[in-house]
């Protein structure tokens, strides 16, 4: 086979590839190359000139208005179980994040778990592995849970059911917009109603924004709040620092440890 000569050395090429993956360009979208110049030539011809010699743009066809939040509410409400919720999310086309993600990340853990841990959004590892809290962040979360006798592989009293506010990894590492959080909230609320946790952990700003309408996790962490969905019972919810942030800010681990003990005490008392 002919060797392809390149001015880049191996390590530079690898670093460039990594950078592109960080930006979200981690897939070849088409097997065959597309000649965009040819595409341009096959575009529809310009409108003919009018009697005054001027060309007018074609009259735009009015698109029916869609309300993504109303659509999300309708789809989510119809889901009777977790399989139905997954199908509803797969049929929801208003969230731009979905276009760039490899797959939908719904949850991991036993549906009977007492604790539901709600994270922010899948990252690169989650998108690859198809489960929430994967990679180093997931390993730290697993250690934190194990310290209070919980695990994502346990069920009932020892189980932690993991999910995220956004079920798709975004194209870049940008924050989710308020509109994106609002359109995914009905699915999250339905998820809570179907899983019926006794206690929830809100890991990071996004779940606090979606369920408590508050941000500022450094201030909110460690204080119990309550979340009520679809007329169900008020569920105790503990805001905590996301393990992803804990890895960048090890000083916050002491507070996280105090929060975990708080969670354990609540579970023992219920
Ligand atoms: N990974 C997740 O799945 N969720 C988070 O909130 C952070 C990392």
Overall description:
This protein has one domain (about 70-270): Uracil-DNA glycosylase-like domain (Uracil-DNA Glycosylase, subunit E, 3-Layer(aba) Sandwich). About 35% of the residues are buried. α3 (about 70-80) packs antiparallel against α4 (about 80-90), α3 (about 70-80) packs parallel to α8 (about 180-195) and α8 crosses α9 (about 205-210). The chain is built from twelve helices and six strands. Strands 1-3-2-4-6-5 form a six-stranded mixed beta sheet, sandwiched between helices. The longest helix is centred in the C-terminal third of the chain and has 18 residues, at about 180-195. A hairpin with a 7-residue loop joins β5 and β6. The termini are far apart. It has helices at about 10-25, 35-40, 70-80, 80-90, 95-100, 125-130, 135-145, 180-195, 205-210, 215-220, 245-250, 255-270, and strands at about 105-110, 115-120, 160-165, 200-205, 225, 235-240. By secondary structure, the protein is an alpha/beta fold. About 45% of the residues lie in helices and about 10% in strands. The structure holds uracil. Uracil binds near residues 123, 126, 133 and 203.
Q: Which SSEs are present, and which pair or pack?
A:
Elements: H1 10-23, H2 36-41, H3 68-78, H4 82-90, H5 97-100, E1 107-108, E2 115-119, H6 124-129, H7 135-146, E3 160-164, H8 178-195, E4 199-203, H9 205-212, H10 217-220, E5 225-227, E6 235-240, H11 243-248, H12 253-269
Parallel strand pairs: 2-3, 2-4, 4-6
Antiparallel strand pairs: 1-3, 5-6
Bound molecules: uracil.
């Amino acid at each position: 086979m002919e060797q392809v000569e390149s001015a880049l050395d191996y390590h530079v090429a690898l670093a460039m590839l990594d950078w592109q993956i960080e930006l979200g360009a981690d897939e070849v979208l088409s097997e065959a190359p597309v000649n965009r110049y040819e595409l341009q030539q096959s575009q529809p011809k310009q409108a003919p000139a009018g009697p005054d010699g001027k060309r007018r743009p074609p009259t735009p066809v009015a698109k029916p208005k869609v309300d993504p939040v109303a659509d999300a509410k309708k789809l989510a409400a119809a889901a009777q179980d977790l399989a139905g919720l997954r199908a509803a999310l797969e049929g929801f086309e208003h969230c731009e994040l979905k276009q760039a993600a490899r797959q939908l990340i719904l949850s991991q853990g036993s549906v009977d778990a007492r604790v539901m841990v709600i994270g922010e959004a899948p990252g690169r590892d989650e998108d690859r592995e198809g489960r929430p809290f994967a990679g180093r962040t997931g390993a730290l979360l697993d250690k934190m849970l194990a310290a209070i006798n919980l695990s994502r592989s346990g069920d009932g009293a020892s189980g932690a059911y993991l999910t995220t506010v956004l079920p798709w990894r975004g194209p870049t590492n940008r924050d989710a917009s308020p509109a994106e959080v609002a359109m995914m909230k009905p699915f999250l609320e339905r998820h809570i109603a179907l899983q019926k946790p006794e206690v929830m952990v809100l890991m990071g700003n996004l779940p606090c924004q979606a369920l408590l309408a508050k941000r500022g996790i450094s201030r909110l962490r460690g204080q119990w709040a309550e979340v009520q969905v679809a007329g169900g019972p008020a569920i105790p919810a503990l805001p905590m620092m996301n393990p992803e942030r804990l890895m960048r800010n090890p000083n916050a681990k002491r507070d996280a440890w105090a929060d975990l003990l708080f969670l354990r005490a609540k579970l023992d008392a219920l």
